[in-house]
Amino acid sequence: MRVRIKHWASENIWYILAFALPFVVAAVAFICQGMWPFGDRGITIIDSYHQYVPFFSELQYKWRHFDSLLYSWNGGLGMNFWAVIAYYLASPLNLLLLVFPKSMVMECFSLIYFIKIGLAGLSFAYFIRKRFDHYGFAITVFGCCYALSSFVIGYAWNIMWLDCIVMFPMVMLGIHRLIQEGRGWLYGASLALCIFTNYYIAIMICIFSCMYLLVEVICERSAGVTAKIRRIVGFAGYSLMAGAFGAVMLIPTAYALMSSQSASSSFPT
Predict the structure, then answer these.
(1) In a 10 Å sphere around its CB, with 0-12 CB exposed, 13-18 middle and 19+ buried, how is residue 95 labelled?
(2) 8 membership: H or E segment, kind and range
(3) Contact (CB, 8 A) for 42 and 36
(4) Cα–Cα dist 36/172, whole Å
(5) Nearest 10 degrees: Cα torsion 256, 167, 189, 178
(6) Angle, nearest 10°, between helix axes 162-181 and 199-219?
(7) What letter does residue 262 receive in the DSSP assignment?
(8) Based on the number of CB atoms within 10 Å of its own CB, is 196 exposed (0-12), middle (13-18) or buried (19 or more)?
(9) Averaged over 173-186, what is the pLDDT?
């Protein structure tokens, strides 16, 4: 068993480092900044302190008490909690809340951030490996650059956006495979997960996907015009399937937003 683990680790060392290095760098940065338990500071600022962590606490309570996820009485005079989940709480990693006690919700928030940073590095490293058929130190370097980019660091407190950042390289790889090989399941599944976890960042990913599709179509010289048209139609089909999967979040949230005051406001002239 130990030999198998060593063999697996040696074969996947650059993937492991692509996950571990951003994770460790972020953790060391927290320590240097005096983050708890190494100081009296925390990652949560602005909205994450006033909204995200309280939402985490409410989700933890509902899971542990088998309470309804559709509505909550613990905000104002009550609120549509499913719409809150759709934007803030749909990440699969939030299941870690079941492991942490109520008093350590903020620590769980930080750990989830570290894990997402690591997964972003791993995801981009995998994209580089498969897209450019290269495996070595370079994929770790580019994975770390992606995971520790200015966007990720600058918006670290918007932890709910990071799931889409993790899945974004898989969306690009899925589009590449769809145009090159006609296989679109990776694109459809990745985009569906983006829409499910956070529809806001998924909007930007959908726009980028349309532009990146054109790049892949233009760069693909081995396929004929008919094959390219067939794969573009496949792209549209997989996109619709991803949207249909995310509809369980999108439709209830759209109705919730339509009933808010901002829905009736007009763009300033």
Answers:
(1) exposed
(2) helix 2-11
(3) yes
(4) 37
(5) 130
(6) 30
(7) G
(8) buried
(9) 87
The pair of structure tokens assigned to 164 is 């889409």
Place of tokens 């104002």: 76
Average the pLDDT over each of 38-42, 99-103, 123-127, 210-214 and give the range with the smallest value. Answer: 38-42
Q: State which amino acid sits at residue 181.
A: E
| Phi, psi angles (nearest 5°) of residue 104 | -120, 30
* d(C-alpha 112, C-alpha 95), whole Å: 10
Question: 16 Cβ partners below 8 Å, 6+ apart?
Answer: 9
SS3 79: strand
* Rg (the chain; Cα; Å): 21
The encoded tokens of residue 257 equal: 């937003």
Instruction: Give the CA count within 13 Å in the CB-facing half-sphere of 128.
Output: 22
Q: How many CB atoms lie within 10 A of CB 252?
A: 16
Span 222-234, pLDDT tens digits: 767 777 788 888 8
30: how many CB neighbours lie within 10 A of its CB?
Answer: 19
The residue with tokens 């009485």 is 73
pLDDT score of 131: 87
Residue whose structure tokens are 């897209």? 131
Confidence of residue 37 (pLDDT cuts 50, 70, 90): low
Question: What does the alpha-carbon distance between residue 47 and residue 8 come to, in Å, rounded to a whole number?
Answer: 42
Q: CA-based angle 173:184:195, to the nearest 5?
A: 75
